[in-house]
C-alpha cells in the first residue's frame, strides 16, 4: 500500500489536498494521470450501463436538493453512526469499530458513552444562517434519481424494467475516514436505480450482481481479489431488504467496492407521502397502478481507482534492475503512447519525434518526453502504465520507421511511421 501511495504522489496520480498548508486530512486531489484514469473508468462504466443497454438512461442531478428529500429518504432520522470520544487523548471512534470495548484503542483511556452522529454535511443556502435555510450536501446520488422518476416517465415513457444511471460527488462526515482514498468525506459514486415489478425484484437483483461482478473482471481486476458478500440482516441500510457487496482484497483486508441492494418501494413511497405527488407507475396493459421496487448497484469511483492501482501495481526484476509497472487495462491506462527520441541532442530526431507525437495526439492520449536517457524514459512510462513507447532513432530518419515497445511484454517491433496510428489503434481496440 505504501508503495502505491508513494507512486501516486511521485508520478502525479493523487496528491494530498491543500498540502502546502499541511494538508486537509483524508482529502485527496487527482493529478494529471489520476484524472485521466478516473475519466477512463467513468467512461467505461457509462458505456457498459448506459450505452450498451437500451433500458438505462443517464442523469446528472444537482448536489444540493430540497431539505425535505432527506426527511423523506430517512437520512435525517436514520443516517447516523454512534461515536465515542476518549476522555484522555480526545480521539473519536465509531462505536461499531470498538467491538464492545470500553477502553480507548489508542491510549487505553476512558471512553464516553456512544452518541449518535449524523453523517450528512449541513450548510446554509443564501445569506441568513437560520434553521429554515439549512440544506445538506447529498450523502448519495440516488435521491436525485428518485425525485426525477416522474420526469423520466413523462419525457421518455419507458416500460418497466428500466433504470437511471448517474455519476457524481457525495459527501459524508465520516467519523473514521482513512486507508488513503478508501474512506473519505468527499467521494464520487456511480449509481444505478433500476425500477422493476415487485415480483421480479429478487431475479433482477441476482442479474445485476452478476453483471456488476463481470464488469470488474472485464477491467482486468484479478478474480482472486474479488468476492461477493451478502449482507446479514443486522447490517442492512434502513431502506434495504437485501444487499450483496462486491469486495476487493485490499492490502488492509477485504473491503467493499460496490453494494447491490434491493431498496424495495421504500423511496418512491416515501417521496409520494412527503411531496404529495403520486409516484406510482401505471401499467397500461395490465391496467395496474403500483410502486416499482428498486434494484440499486452503487459503486465508488475512488475505491475502484484504488483497487485498480493496487491490482495493476507490479514490481519485476529486469536484469539487475527493478521495473515498476502499472499493468492497467488498455481502456483505463491514462496514456496510450509516449514518443521518445533516442538522442535528444540531434535536432532532426527531436523534430521528427515531436511531429509524430503531435499527429498521434489527434487520435489518442500521447505524451512526448526527451528529458532523460531512454532507459529512464521507459521506466517512467512503465510506472504510469503507458501502453506503448515509440522510439525515434537515427535509422528512423532514413527508413521512416520507429520502434514500438509494448508495456507488458517489453517486446519491440519496427513500424513504418505512416502506419503507426493504425498499428496502435489496432492494438488498443
Ligand atoms: N445509494 C446507496 C449507497 O450510497 P453505500 O454502500 O453507502 O450505498 C455506495 O455507498 C458506494 O459508495 C460504496 O460501495 C463505496 O464504493 C462508496 N462509498 C461510500 N462511502 C464512501 C466513503 N466515505 N469514501 C469513499 N467511497 C465511499
* CATH topology descriptor of the largest domain: BirA Bifunctional Protein, domain 2
What oligomeric state do these chains adopt? Answer: single chain
> How much strand content do the residues show?
25-35%
Number of contiguous helices: 14
CATH architecture of the largest domain: 2-Layer Sandwich
Name the helicity range.
25-40%
- The whole-angstrom Rg is 25 Å
CATH H-level name of the largest domain... which superfamily?
Bira Bifunctional Protein, Domain 2
**How many DSSP E strands?**
23
Morphology call: globular
Average pLDDT number: 96
Low-confidence stretches: none
Count of discrete domains: 3
| Main β-sheet, spatial strand arrangement | 3-9-10-16-13-12-11
Structural class: alpha+beta
Main beta sheet? 7 strands, mixed
Q: List all distinct small molecules, including ions and cofactors, that are bound in this structure.
A: glycyl-adenosine-5'-phosphate
Amino acid at each position: 500500500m505504501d508503495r502505491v501511495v508513494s507512486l501516486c504522489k511521485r508520478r502525479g496520480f493523487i496528491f494530498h489536498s491543500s498540502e502546502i498548508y499541511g494538508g486537509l486530512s483524508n482529502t485527496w486531489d487527482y493529478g494529471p494521470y489520476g484524472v485521466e484514469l478516473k475519466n477512463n473508468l467513468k467512461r467505461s462504466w457509462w458505456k457498459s450501463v448506459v450505452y450498451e443497454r437500451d433500458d438505462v438512461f443517464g442523469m446528472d442531478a444537482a448536489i444540493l436538493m430540497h431539505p425535505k428529500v432527506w426527511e423523506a429518504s430517512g437520512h435525517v432520522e436514520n443516517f447516523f453512526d454512534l461515536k465515542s470520544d476518549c476522555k484522555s487523548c480526545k480521539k473519536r471512534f465509531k462505536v461499531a469499530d470498538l467491538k464492545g470495548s470500553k477502553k480507548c484503542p489508542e491510549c487505553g483511556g476512558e471512553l464516553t458513552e456512544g452518541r449518535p452522529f449524523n453523517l450528512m454535511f449541513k450548510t446554509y443556502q443564501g445569506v441568513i444562517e437560520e434553521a429554515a435555510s439549512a440544506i445538506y450536501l447529498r450523502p448519495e446520488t440516488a435521491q436525485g434519481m428518485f425525485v426525477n422518476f416522474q420526469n423520466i416517465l413523462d419525457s421518455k415513457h419507458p416500460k418497466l424494467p428500466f433504470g437511471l444511471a448517474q455519476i457524481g460527488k457525495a459527501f459524508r462526515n465520516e467519523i473514521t475516514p482513512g486507508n488513503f482514498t478508501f474512506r473519505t468525506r468527499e467521494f464520487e459514486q456511480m449509481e444505478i436505480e433500476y425500477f422493476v415489478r415487485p415480483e421480479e425484484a429478487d431475479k433482477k437483483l441476482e442479474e445485476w450482481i452478476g453483471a456488476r461482478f463481470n464488469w470488474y473482471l472485464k477491467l482486468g481486476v484479478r478474480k482472486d481479489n474479488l468476492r461477493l458478500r451478502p449482507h446479514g440482516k443486522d447490517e442492512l441500510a434502513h431502506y434495504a431488504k437485501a444487499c450483496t457487496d462486491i469486495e476487493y482484497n485490499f492490502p488492509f483486508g477485504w473491503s467493499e467496492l460496490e453494494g447491490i441492494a434491493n431498496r424495495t418501494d421504500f423511496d418512491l413511497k416515501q417521496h409520494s407521502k412527503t411531496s404529495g405527488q403520486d409516484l406510482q407507475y401505471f401499467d397500461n396493459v395490465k391496467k395496474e397502478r403500483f410502486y416499482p421496487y428498486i434494484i440499486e448497484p452503487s459503486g465508488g469511483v475512488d475505491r475502484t481507482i484504488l483497487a485498480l492501482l493496487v491490482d495493476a501495481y507490479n514490481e519485476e526484476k529486469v536484469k539487475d534492475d527493478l521495473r515498476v509497472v502499472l499493468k492497467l487495462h488498455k481502456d483505463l491506462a491514462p496514456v496510450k503512447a509516449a514518443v521518445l527520441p533516442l538522442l535528444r541532442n540531434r535536432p532532426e530526431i527531436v523534430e521528427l519525434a515531436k511531429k509524430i507525437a503531435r499527429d498521434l495526439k489527434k487520435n489518442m492520449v500521447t505524451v512526448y518526453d526527451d528529458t532523460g536517457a531512454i532507459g529512464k524514459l521507459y521506466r517512467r512510462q512503465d510506472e504510469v502504465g503507458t501502453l506503448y513507447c515509440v522510439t525515434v532513432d537515427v535509422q528512423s530518419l532514413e527508413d521512416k520507421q520507429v520502434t514500438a515497445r509494448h508495456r507488458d511484454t517489453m517486446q519491440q517491433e519496427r513500424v513504418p511511421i505512416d502506419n503507426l496510428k493504425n498499428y496502435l489503434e489496432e492494438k488498443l481496440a
